[in-house]
Structure formats: structure tokens, C-alpha cells
């Protein structure tokens, strides 16, 4: 029965409800409730799954390529925000060839007090922190490829090393002391992510396509011993054992990891299938360089990046993990997976529509709130230490 049928029935009941039986009055109340529901706006399934986010582009800024404390400022592959200190921490993917593995502390000065849209007035590099391994020494040259960084209050950052498959070097995630750069602990990765051999590889991350993304849920601002938080990372491209080399029509299948971080050993909660955008054609490569957890549980932003004959491109998606199948016990994701529900995703923005020349965007974080209370979103590019590329910072407003 549709709403119009109910409306006709309600008219009959209202006319006779006091003339027939007392129970008809109760029926009239039920029908009124149904009619009230009919009057509510109808919401489709996708609107119920996603948050209804949108983004507004505000500004572009180019960080000058000036040396800082005898280090070249470049290779900026990940960014994270420390709300208490109002500072950004930016990881360099220098493998130690130009200077030891490191992250920089930045202060973004926003011009957001006028009636015009907020802009980036300037960016100050305040310090550089060198990373140290479990032995207390800087990571050996060529044995770390730091791509992701995530701040954990009060005094830690997590870093993700992509791994170097051609050298048989595994990816890793380490917790690092914010002030000293000293190793704190390791986040154990499943064995299926570890390259089994440098040659004729049959499992693990692909070379230069390992772990780039890293994010903590925004509620993880307190001490993990009191307030456990969630950590997310994903492969930039499929694991070797998941490659559909014989079927180019199937979308690339990445894996996303979800950990619970507390005062005990980190716990792997789940692993889910993330399929890369299929609409990108004629690209030389494409991948998933960044994730950003949102305060609403199970909701994240994802940044997909590609490069082709026309240069760099990127797309921003809203993703939802709640209904995705746990793939942690699936040895290979090859072929068509009819019984595996992937992470749901919705395109928020094709950055090529902004009308600006994009560089190699790899990092993303929430930033400070603007003077009107709205939320800022910042993206940053990796210039690959190439003089023809730039350290590009993009400023957006994230709207809900």
C-alpha cells in the first residue's frame, strides 16, 4: 500500500472513528504515524551509507626548495596535524641518499580573518627530526622508504616505510618519539605483505607500491593507555599474489589494514578489499598514496593518484568500510570475487577539474578550523627531488 492509499483510508477512519468502535481510534493513530513517515524526505541507499561530504578548493601554495639545516626539503610524501601544538609534521621519502631519513615540523600561517576565502599566507619550516631505528642509530642508507606519517598524542608519530621489494626489504610501521626521533615500537604486518624473495617474487608488496598511506582516527588525541585509537594503512597497488595480470578488465585490488592501538600489543582488527578507480585510462601508473580517517567511525577519505602522458592527476573519494568483507583469511584476491564485498567509495572531487597544474600529490590531513568553525583539509605533493617538480600544498574546506 502506498502513501496515497493510506491517506484515503485515513479519511474514512477519521469520519467513522467515533461512530463505530473505540478500537478504530487506535487504528487512526497508527495511520497518522505512517502518514507522517510518508511525508519525510526519501533517502536513497547511497545517501544512508555516506556522510554527504563535499570539498571546496581555496588555495594553492608552493613551498620553496630551500635547504634547511643541511637537508634538501623535498620528497614530501605524507603530512599529519598536531592540533594541540598547531603544527604539521611532514615526512620525506629520502632513503638516506641526500640526508638521513627525517620529518619536518611546519607552521602554516592562514589568512582567514577577512571576508575573502581563506588562503595560505606563508609556511615556516621550524625544525627537522631524524629518524632512528630499533638499534638507536639512523636507518641505513637505502633501507627505508618513509612514505606515511600520522601523529599520536601526546608525543609520538607513526611512520610507514613502503618497503623495497627488489632488495627484499619488507614494509614496516614504526612508532617514533616526536621529539627525539627514537624508535618506540613496531606494528607487526601480516606475512603476506612481506616479499618472499627479491627475484621471482610470488607474494608481498610490489616494488615501489607498498605502504604509502597512514592515518589515525581523529579521536586518538589522548594517551593510548587511556583512550585506544585506530590505525589504518593500505597498499598503494595490489600485492603480488593479488595481481590480475591475465584480465585487464578487473579493477586493481588493494588491501586496507585496520589496527587497534592501546597499551598492549597492536591488534589487527580487519583487512578489507579496496578497488582502485577503473575510469583512469592510458596511465603509466596509478595507485593509492593516502588515507585520512574521519571522526565518524568507519568513514575515511582516500586519495588516488595517477600519472600519464598529460602529467599528474588525482581523485578524492569518501569511503566506508562498515559493510566490507574481512579478507584477512583470503590468500589471493585474483579473479572475480563474487562473495567479497569491497570497501564502498564515492567520488568527492576530480582534482583535474580545479584548473590548476597538479604535481605528485601524496599526503593528506585535516588541519585547523577556520575562523567560522569550518574544517580545513590539506594536500601536499612529493617532488621526487626533481628540479622540474614542486612542493605543492593545496588548501580545501571540508564540508558536511
What does this structure look like?
With about 400 residues, the protein is mostly beta strands. Helix content is about 10%, strand content about 40%. The strands form five sheets. A four-stranded antiparallel β-sheet has the order 1-20-19-18, with no helix packed on it. A four-stranded antiparallel β-sheet has the order 2-3-4-5, with no helix packed on it. Helix 1 (about 5-15) runs antiparallel to helix 2. The radius of gyration is 25 Å and the shape is globular. The two termini are about 35 Å apart. About 35% of the residues are buried. This is Esterase-like activity of phytase family protein. InterPro entries: Phytase-like_dom (IPR027372). Keywords: Membrane, Transmembrane, Transmembrane helix.
Helix and strand succession?
A: HHHEEEEEEEEEEEEEEEEEEEE
Q: Note the overall shape.
A: globular
- Our Rg estimate from Cα atoms comes to 25 Å
Q: How helix-rich are the residues, as a percent range? A: under 10%
Major sheet: 4 strands, antiparallel
InterPro entries: Phytase-like_dom (IPR027372)
Organism: Laspinema palackyanum D2a
Protein name: Esterase-like activity of phytase family protein
Domain Phytase-like: 71-385
Key phrases:
400 residues; mainly beta; four-stranded antiparallel sheet; 20 strands; 40% strand; disordered N terminus
List the helices and strands and how they pair.
Blueprint: H1 3-16, H2 23-39, H3 45-49, E1 54-63, E2 76-82, E3 87-92, E4 102-111, E5 119-130, E6 146-152, E7 156-161, E8 172-177, E9 183-187, E10 215-216, E11 229-234, E12 253-261, E13 267-275, E14 283-293, E15 299-308, E16 311-320, E17 344-350, E18 361-369, E19 375-381, E20 391-399
Antiparallel strand pairs: 1-20, 2-3, 3-4, 4-5, 6-7, 7-8, 8-9, 10-11, 11-12, 12-13, 14-15, 15-16, 16-17, 18-19, 19-20
Amino acid at each position: 500500500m502506498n502513501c496515497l492509499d493510506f491517506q484515503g483510508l485515513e479519511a474514512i477512519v477519521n469520519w467513522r472513528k467515533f461512530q463505530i468502535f473505540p478500537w478504530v481510534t487506535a487504528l487512526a493513530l497508527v495511520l497518522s504515524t505512517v502518514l507522517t513517515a510518508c511525508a519525510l524526505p526519501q533517502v536513497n541507499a547511497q545517501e544512508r551509507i555516506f556522510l554527504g561530504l563535499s570539498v571546496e578548493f581555496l588555495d594553492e601554495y608552493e613551498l620553496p626548495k630551500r635547504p634547511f639545516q643541511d637537508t634538501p626539503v623535498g620528497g614530501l610524501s605524507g603530512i599529519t596535524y598536531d592540533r594541540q601544538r598547531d603544527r604539521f609534521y611532514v615526512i620525506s621519502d629520502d632513503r638516506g641518499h641526500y640526508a638521513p631519513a627525517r620529518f619536518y615540523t611546519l607552521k602554516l600561517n592562514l589568512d582567514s580573518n577577512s571576508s575573502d576565502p581563506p588562503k595560505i599566507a606563508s609556511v615556516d619550516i621550524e625544525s627537522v627530526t631524524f629518524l632512528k631505528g630499533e638499534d638507536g642509530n639512523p636507518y641505513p642508507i637505502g633501507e627505508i622508504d618513509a612514505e606515511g606519517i600520522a601523529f599520536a598524542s601526546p608525543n609520538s608519530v607513526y611512520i610507514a616505510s613502503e618497503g623495497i621489494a627488489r632488495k627484499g626489504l619488507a614494509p614496516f610501521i614504526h612508532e617514533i618519539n616526536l621529539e627525539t626521533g627514537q624508535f618506540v615500537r613496531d606494528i607487526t604486518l601480516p606475512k603476506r605483505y612481506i616479499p618472499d624473495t627479491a627475484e621471482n617474487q610470488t607474494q608481498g608488496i610490489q616494488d615501489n607500491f607498498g605502504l604509502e598511506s597512514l592515518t589515525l582516527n581523529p579521536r586518538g588525541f589522548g594517551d593510548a593507555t587511556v583512550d585506544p585509537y585506530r590505525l589504518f594503512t593500505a597498499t598503494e597497488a595490489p600485492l603480488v599474489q593479488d595481481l590480475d595480470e591475465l584480465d585487464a578488465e578487473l579493477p586493481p585490488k588493494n588491501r586496507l589494514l585496520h589496527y587497534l592501538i592501546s597499551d598492549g600489543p597492536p591488534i589487527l582488527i580487519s583487512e578489507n578489499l579496496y578497488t582502485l578507480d577503473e575510469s583512469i585510462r592510458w596511465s603509466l601508473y596509478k595507485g593509492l598514496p593516502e588515507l585520512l580517517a574521519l571522526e565518524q567511525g568507519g568513514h575515511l577519505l582516500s586519495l588516488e593518484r595517477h600519472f600519464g602522458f598529460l602529467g599528474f592527476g588525482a581523485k578524492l573519494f569518501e569511503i566506508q568500510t562498515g559493510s566490507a568483507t574481512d579478507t584477512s583469511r583470503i590468500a589471493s584476491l585474483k579473479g572475480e570475487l563474487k562473495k567479497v564485498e569491497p570497501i564502498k567509495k564515492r567520488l568527492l572531487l576530480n582534482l583535474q577539474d580545479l584548473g590548476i597544474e597538479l604535481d605528485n600529490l601524496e599526503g593528506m590531513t585535516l588541519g585547523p578550523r577556520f575562523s567560522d568553525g569550518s574544517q580545513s583539509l590539506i594536500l601536499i605533493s612529493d617532488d621526487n627531488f626533481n628540479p622540474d617538480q614542486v612542493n605543492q600544498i593545496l588548501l580545501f574546506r571540508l564540508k558536511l
